[in-house]
Write a structure and sequence with these properties.
The protein is of the alpha+beta class. It has a domain at about 180-365: DD-peptidase/beta-lactamase superfamily (Beta-lactamase, 3-Layer(aba) Sandwich). The chain is built from 11 helices and 9 strands. Strands 2-1-9-8-7 form a 5-stranded antiparallel β-sheet, with helices on both faces. A two-stranded antiparallel sheet has the order 3-4.
Length: about 400
């Protein structure tokens, strides 16, 4: 009897032992590398290897596309409409940040971070101070004003209005009444030339009307054209920019706009496209008109665009040109009015890209000048000057290039 009881007790013990083993196998905790475990606990173990550090992903279950079976599906990116790849530690390859070229890092407190979503609280992919300093900064914005230099004094400008513009960046380096409207006189013709090269072929022929050749104030500069005279657009541009011929401006305006009024509208539309806000043109030549006004800054924007055109720049840096014969005269040579182009002149300035003079009784002296040295291109506009237009321009150019040499612009 006692022997039976011992055998029964032994059998019961063995049975209980196998039951316990079976039960224990059912409640084994999940693999600590399984998806979602540390996201839910709110703490990550830095000593645990990430999923992609396991050779061949051993011991880690690959999750099908869509996140099924992870136990902690990734957040969906509403913009993408699909589930992003999981981050390290989740059992899936890390999400790649296309902009940074580095794998995104999982936020342990938040779970899986979808691609393109900012991962606050995790600075591993945040650029260091050194990296931020080495990142190229954008160039000066259009219209921003140079704050001034502690090493190089700004010049004194006698003209009533002036601006010095960095043509590379659009930054205003110096200004004096730069947004005040003045009469521009013949620097108006820079806009006329710009519209001409944008709307005509150089070989086009301009036929000059009676209106174009007679609608001029007394003393206006001309090349003595009369009704019926014809010039190519190329010859007209040389007469316009070198001699500042006013009837040529009228003829080009009629050739493009049909009438001078229509062309003035074209000028104003183009000025607005260039960012001009204080400009109203009433004619193509700049002869006195109470409604014909622009600002030094607006004129600098126009000149910047015009002298970026190689045709205008080439013509504007020519000191002499042979004009064909006309009804009233034989062929003749015309010369450039801007004195900074002549190496033998005391006002010569190296690096000229283009320029235009102007004068009327109401406008006074006006001058547009574009110069490039060592890759830095500057535009100077001087308005309402009384004989100081060249000295003011030189002083501003010297100032701008000194700032450039000093690395300040």
């Amino acid at each position: 009897m006692k022997k039976r009881l011992r055998l029964l007790s032994l059998g019961t013990a063995v049975s209980l032992l196998w039951s316990s083993i079976a039960f224990a196998m059912e409640i084994v905790p999940p693999n600590p590398l399984s998806p979602g475990v540390y996201a839910e606990s709110g703490a990550a173990d830095a000593g645990l290897p990430s999923a992609d550090s396991q050779p061949g992903g051993a011991g880690i279950t690959e999750v099908p596309t869509g996140g099924a079976g992870t136990g902690n599906p990734s957040k969906q990116d509403p913009a993408a409409g699909s589930l992003p790849a999981q981050d390290p530690g989740t059992g899936n390859p890390p999400t790649q940040d296309p902009a940074a070229g580095n794998p995104s890092v999982q936020d342990p407190a938040a779970g899986n971070t979808p691609a393109g979503e900012t991962n606050t609280g995790n600075t591993e992919n945040t650029p260091t101070d050194a990296e931020q300093e080495s990142t190229p900064q954008p160039s000066a914005l259009e219209g921003t004003v140079f704050a001034g230099s502690v090493k190089i004094a700004a010049p004194a400008v006698a003209a009533e209005g002036a601006v010095l513009l960095n043509a590379n960046t659009g930054q205003i380096i110096f200004e004096k009444n730069a947004r005040t409207p003045f009469y521009p006189a013949s620097i108006t013709k820079v806009m006329t030339a710009l519209l001409t090269v944008e709307n005509c072929n150089l070989s086009d022929v301009v036929t000059f009307s009676r209106t174009a050749t007679t609608n001029l104030e007394s003393g206006a500069v001309t090349i003595s054209l009369t009704e019926g005279d014809q010039l190519t657009v190329k010859d007209s541009l040389y007469a316009l920019l070198l001699k500042s011929a006013n009837e040529v401006a009228n003829g080009l305006a009629e050739h493009m706009g049909g009438t001078i009024d229509n062309f003035a509208n074209m000028m104003n539309v183009r000025a607005a496209q260039l960012g001009c806000t204080g400009t109203h043109f009433a004619n193509p030549n700049g002869l006195n008109n109470a409604a014909h006004l622009t600002t030094p800054y607006d004129m600098a924007l126009i000149a910047r665009a015009a002298y970026a055109n190689p045709i205008i720049s080439q013509i504007s840096t020519t000191t002499a040109y042979q004009m064909p014969a006309t009804k009233l005269g034989a062929a003749k040579t015309i010369t450039m009015g801007h004195k900074m182009l002549y190496p033998t002149d005391s006002r010569y300035y190296p690096g000229m890209v283009g320029g235009k003079t102007g004068y009327t009784s109401k406008a006074g002296n006006t001058l547009v000048t574009c110069v490039e040295q060592n890759g830095v291109r500057l535009v100077v506009v001087v308005m309402k000057a009384s004989g100081t237009h060249y000295t003011d321009t030189k002083a501003l150019l010297d100032y701008g290039f000194a700032l450039a040499a000093n690395g300040e612009i």
